[in-house]
Design brief:
The complex is a heterotrimer. Chain A is 76% helix and 2% strand. Chain A is globular. Chain B is mostly helical. Chain B has a domain of 175 residues. Helix content of chain B is 64%, strand content 0%. Chain C has one domain. Chain C is built from 3 helices and no strands. In chain C, helix 1 packs antiparallel against helix 2 and helix 2 runs antiparallel to helix 3. Chain C is flat and about 45 Å long. Chain C starts with a helix and ends in a 7-residue tail after the last helix. The chains are: A mainly alpha, B mainly alpha, C mainly alpha. The interface between A and B is large, with 58 and 54 residues.
Chain lengths: 499, 254, 80
């Protein structure tokens, strides 16, 4: 079936668009339509990845039958395929996870339908961002991701609308800068297709416009992925978003623009350009500042979501560090960190939402002895936090290992020192959470999901399954990382980015 | 100096710097026929668009046929904006939603003799013009977005002048959001139909309407018209949706 | 007269309107001036030759001005 690249996006699109109409007729079916189409999309993405790994060649799909550069095309190669599987997987399980939060209520038919519609559009936008092979189409998908992000943050907790407004202002500036970059590239080369841009940019001799376009791209993607000086919107946005959509927002939404940056800087702009070294150094400086800033600021706060949000700034710094290294191990480390951090952060936000659902816990000092009442969630929190710190055999260790290898290969030992220092700093704040969890005194909290009514389950089954799956995937990625790196990543990263 | 003034000064300085960049010599002049932007894709579109798509308006040909996939997601962005506005309202609503009184404009009244008389004449003209713009999108200026916005303007006028007796208005916020979804679905469905006939997504040449047209290339205007219809419905419903949300929001006293 | 004078006129008009919108205090007047901004942008689009975009801008300018006026009706008209 050669229509798979577009069917991955079309199924959830039909689900999201028809969800309000179906909910008008029967409130529960709108929700099931969205969840069902997202799972179908995940299945198709796995089939697509299997096909690519088998044949070893990228898949091209021409929209409307027009050949590029006159029409739009989707290009799926090895790295793309993995990221699409990741996004579809987390999207499907997040939509399953949010069903207890949004019980279909006949008086407010639209409330849950609107939430599912916006969540489904977030997944569609991220899938499209990774699949497309056209620079302007990437802008359109980035707008869909941003707009659904604004929506999901604005319907969150008390300070949600203010956080969403701040994100809206900075996000619009970021999108404008990206669009200006695409405009400069179009005026210099006359084409919008990414493969075509790569060929034509080598031929032109006017380097000022390429440097200006690179600068615009750094600012544009930097705002979207919350790189160091452009991160201002991120902490309030991630701490006050809707609790069930927060895993998707914090785990996946800030990583895919990092993949977009990799696409632009390694596939389109050539690495041997004289300005490329300066550009990579600038990204490296921003990354190091982000890592240290994120880890230091996370020590100050007591609110669980805020700690996780500041730690995300640090983790995105790791990915940017991998980009700035520019060599083979650096890029493998960056892609592996996208995969592992997506599961780690998503899992931690799942546990945070589960705590909020059952006991209304927002602050870490209310966490005393929670592992007695919520054993599965407690175990998952411990496993995921150990992975974030970077202990083997969890996945977090291996991605930092590859980044350190890349730094040594380039001879930049300062980056290795930064990696070690930041791991120690994250150990400090995560172990503080463990101390409160295991040795804090038990607080009297109101139980919203009492065990007496619902049997032995601590939170509904639809919420436990994603938590367990995130923790298990972190362990599996850690143990199986040599399999992934040797068989899939090495070949594809070499070919796509450095070939 | 308060924050707004500081922001204003920063913006002006940034604008001056940007203007300095633009006046530097690396952007081609407007209308230069030999610049690289005008000598690669544009001659192809100018020469082949009429033959490939049977649409004399080159802008519609590129927007709805060659790059129709982008237009689909722009329409989705409009739908998403309407749904998001509605969700933000619903999460803050404190009053119970009771029976809707169609002539209740929540305290906003723009009536008066001049307005009443003038708009009795204007609304039918705007409606006819909207359908004209939709149907002639391929030949002259126009297309789905403009037609949808014009239909919504006619609805807006009717909704905001409270002394009209017969109301066009029958949309609530939620109904408008549903209609926008249906509009986008019309667009997607027009794209899916060719996939059953052996073509790619949005390939109008393979739409299964062969019996209705005389040549295969004449299917392209059919496809373009159907997607413009979808865009019109979505844009009209979204603008009405946001209007109802803003009107509802004025009832709060916070 | 040469098009460059018209283009310069509208560009200066846009800058002046933008500065006024930032620094003026009466919100209703600012909304009407924003409608004039939309008009100036529309004229610029016609001058560079994008007629479809100008048509869309004219229509959407009306819609956004109506939204702003409805929104301002419910909050105070002066800002500090």
């Amino acid at each position: 079936m050669n229509h798979i690249p577009v069917l991955i996006i079309l199924f959830p699109l039909c689900g999201a668009v028809l969800c309000p109409l179906i909910s008008f007729l029967n409130p529960a079916w709108g929700k099931r339509a969205v969840v069902g189409t997202l799972f179908a999309s995940f299945a198709l993405s796995v089939i697509q990845l299997a096909g690519i790994v088998q044949t070893g060649e990228p898949v091209h799909y021409w929209m409307g039958g027009w050949a590029p550069p006159y029409g739009i095309e989707f290009v799926i190669d090895g790295v793309n395929g993995i990221i699409i599987v990741l996004v579809a997987f987390i999207g499907a399980f997040t939509s399953l996870f949010s069903s207890p939060f949004e019980e279909a209520n006949p008086n407010h038919r639209f409330k849950s339908a609107g939430y599912y519609s916006i969540l489904c559009f977030l997944v569609i936008g991220l899938l499209g961002l990774s699949s497309t092979g056209d620079a302007f189409n990437l802008y359109v998908f980035m707008e869909i991701v941003a707009l659904s992000g604004y929506g999901l943050i604005a319907i969150g907790e008390e300070k949600g609308p203010i956080a969403a407004f701040r994100y809206l202002l900075t996000g619009t500036i970021g999108a404008c800068m990206y669009l200006m970059g695409v405009g400069f590239l179009y005026s210099a080369t006359g084409t919008l297709n990414m493969a075509d841009l790569a060929i034509k940019l080598k031929e032109i001799d006017n380097t000022h416009i390429i440097i200006l376009a690179m600068a615009c791209m750094i600012v544009g993607f930097g705002i979207k992925m919350a790189l160091f000086p452009l991160h201002g919107w991120q902490p309030p946005a991630h701490s006050y978003a809707h609790p069930a959509a927060d895993p998707m927002i914090a785990g996946v939404m800030i990583k895919i623009p990092a993949y977009g940056m990799m696409r632009f800087f390694f596939c389109i702009f050539e690495e041997t350009h004289p300005a490329a070294e300066v550009v990579f150094n600038i990204i490296g400086v921003m990354a190091v500042c982000g890592i240290l800033f994120g880890s230091l600021k996370a020590l100050r706060y007591d609110k669980y979501n805020k700690i996780l949000a500041y730690s995300s700034i640090g983790q995105v710094g790791y990915i940017a560090l991998g980009i700035s290294l520019g060599n083979f191990y650096g890029l493998v480390g960056a892609v592996l960190h996208i995969l592992s951090h997506a599961f780690m952060k998503t899992g931690l936000f799942y546990t945070s939402a589960a705590l909020k659902y059952k006991f209304g816990i927002h602050y870490t000092d209310e966490l005393g002895q929670i592992y007695r009442k919520m054993p599965v969630t407690g175990t998952a929190m411990v496993a995921l936090s150990l992975s974030m710190i970077g202990l083997p055999p969890f996945a977090g260790f291996f991605s930092k290992w590859y980044l350190a290898l890349g730094a040594i290969q380039n001879g930049q030992y300062f980056y290795v020192a930064v990696l070690i220092v930041s791991s120690l700093l994250s150990a400090i704040y995560f172990f503080r959470i463990f101390e409160r969890l295991f040795m804090g005194e038990e607080k009297q909290l109101e139980d919203h999901y009492p065990a007496a009514e619902h049997g032995r389950k601590e939170v509904p089954l639809r919420m436990i399954i994603p938590v367990v799956i995130a923790a298990v995937m972190v362990v599996l990625l850690g143990l199986g990382n040599t399999f992934i790196v040797n068989n899939v990543l090495e070949i594809t990263v070499m070919e796509v980015f450095l070939g | 100096m308060d924050k707004v003034k500081i922001t204003g000064v920063i913006v002006i300085i940034a604008g001056v710097i940007l203007a300095g960049f633009i006046l530097g010599d690396f952007l081609p002049t407007v209308g230069d026929a030999t610049s690289s932007a005008n000598s690669y894709l544009s001659p192809y579109y100018i020469e082949h668009a009429l033959h490939d798509t049977e649409a004399p308006n080159l802008v519609t040909a590129v927007l709805a046929d060659y790059r129709g996939f982008d237009t689909l997601f722009e329409t989705c962005v409009m739908f998403l904006a309407g749904v998001t506005a509605l969700m933000v309202l619903l999460s803050k609503r404190k009053i119970v939603k009771g029976q809707r009184n169609p002539s209740d404009t929540n305290g906003i009244s723009f009536s008066g003799t001049v307005l009443d008389t003038a708009f009795r004449v204007l609304i039918p003209v705007i409606l006819i013009y909207a359908f004209y713009v939709l149907a002639h999108g391929e030949i002259s200026l126009g297309g789905g977005f403009q037609a949808g916005a014009l239909l919504a303007i006619a609805y807006m006028i009717d909704r905001l002048i409270p002394s009209f007796q017969n109301r066009l208005g029958f949309f609530t916020e939620e109904t408008a959001a549903m209609t926008a979804g249906v509009g986008v679905f019309i667009y997607i469905f027009t794209g899916i139909l060719p996939m059953f006939n052996g073509g790619n997504f949005l390939e109008y040449g393979k739409l299964p309407f062969e019996f209705a047209v005389e040549a295969a290339v004449m299917l392209h205007p059919v496809g373009i018209f159907l997607i413009e219809l979808g865009v019109t419905v979505c844009v009209m419903a979204t603008i009405i949706n946001i209007l109802e949300v803003v009107l509802e929001r004025t009832k709060f006293d916070d | 007269m040469p098009v460059i004078f018209l283009e310069a006129l509208f560009l200066i008009l846009l800058i002046a309107i933008a500065v006024t919108i930032i620094f003026h205090k009466d919100l209703l007047a600012v909304t009407i001036i924003y409608c004039a901004f939309s008009f100036g942008a529309m004229m610029l689009y016609i001058i560079v030759g994008a007629a479809d975009v100008a048509f869309t801008e004219a229509v959407i300018g009306v819609v956004s001005t109506v939204y702003f006026i409805i929104a301002i009706k419910s909050i105070s008209r002066r800002c500090k």
